[in-house]
Amino acid sequence: MATFGEAELPLVLVHRPPNFHFPFKHRLQTHFRLLDPLDSDPPESTHSFFSRHSASIRTSAAAGTLLSPTLGRHFPPDVADLAVALLIDVLRRVSAGFRYVRAGLWARNGGFPLGFKLGGKRVGIVGLGNIGTEIAKRLESFGCVISYNSRKKKPSVPFPWYKNVYDLAVNSDVLVVCCALTEETRHMISKDVMTALGKEGVIINVGRGALIDEKELVQLLVRGELRGVGLDVFESEPDVPQELFSLDNVVLSPHCAVATPECFDALEELITVNLKAFFSNKPLQSLVPEMLSRRYEVGTMEPASVLDHVYPKGPAMDGGQIASRDPRQDSYWSKI
C-alpha cells in the first residue's frame, strides 16, 4: 500500500520484459509512483494488471521508450563504435591473436598470420540512417571508401548510392549491416549477395540477426568463402550457431552495441523529462513517429490497445525509430 508521500506522486505503469531491469528504476521512484506487473505478488498477467489499473494510470514507462527518435542522437555513436571495433578485430585478427597467445602457441609455434589494413577498404553500408551515418564518419577517417544502400538516394550524401544490396556487395570489400528489420529486409544479405562480396569479403552486422541468411552465412564461412564476419546480432538469440565458435575469422558480441552507461544515463534523463512534461501537460521531447498525431491517455484504452500503442507493430525505420517488431520478443532486452 502506498504511503501518503507516495500517493502524491504521479502514477506510472512500468511495462518491461521479465529479464529487463531498469538500471535507474530507484531514481525514477523519487519522482513517480511506479506500478510494475512483474513486482506484483502473486505474479499477475500483464493484461490482467492493465485491466485492474488502467482507470488510474495516465501513462506508461516502457522498455520501448528506448526506441524513441530523440535517443537517436545517443544510440548511433555507441553502435557505430562497436561496428568499427568488430571490423578492426576481424581484419587485424585481434581476438584470434589473443587466443593464440593465451594458448601458448606464440612461444611454441612462432609467428601468427598477418592481419589486413583497414585504410583503403571499400565499405558498403546497408542502411545509411543515423547509425550508418556515424559508421561512415568513423570509417572515412580511417581512409575507407564509402558507398551505401538505402531505400532512397540521399541528395545531401556525397557517397555513391546503390539501389540494391547485390550491386553494393559487388563493389565492396566490406558490408556493414545496420538497417532495420522488416519483411522486405529479412534475409536481404542472401547467399547471392555474400557470394558477390567474394572470398575476400567481410560482413559486420549490428542491425538485426535476421537481416542475414544465417544458415547460408555459416556454410560460406565453413567453406572458407568469406574472409570473416563480426556479429553483434543473431537470428535466434541468444542461440548462436555452434559452427561459429571454432572459426578464428569470426568475432561475436552478445547484442550489446547500444548498452553503455552513458546511453542509459541519457535514457534516464529522457524518460524523466518526458514523464514530467506529460504530467505537466507540456510537449514531450520525443514521440514514436507513428504516434505524433495521437495524444492519448492509457486510461482511455482497452488493455490490448494499450500494448499495441506502447509497442507499435508498424514498419521499422532506420535511426532508432519504430521497432521492427514487438520489443517484448527481442532477446536484446534480456541481456541488459
UniProtKB/TrEMBL annotation:
Gene3D superfamilies: NAD(P)-binding Rossmann-like Domain. It comes from the Eukaryota. The keyword Oxidoreductase applies. Keywords: Oxidoreductase. Pfam families: 2-Hacid_dh_C (PF02826). SUPFAM superfamilies: NAD(P)-binding Rossmann-fold domains. Residues 317-336 are annotated as: Disordered. Residues 84-257 form the D-isomer specific 2-hydroxyacid dehydrogenase NAD-binding domain. This is D-isomer specific 2-hydroxyacid dehydrogenase NAD-binding domain-containing protein. It comes from Hibiscus sabdariffa (roselle). The lineage of its organism: Eukaryota, Viridiplantae, Streptophyta, Embryophyta, Tracheophyta.
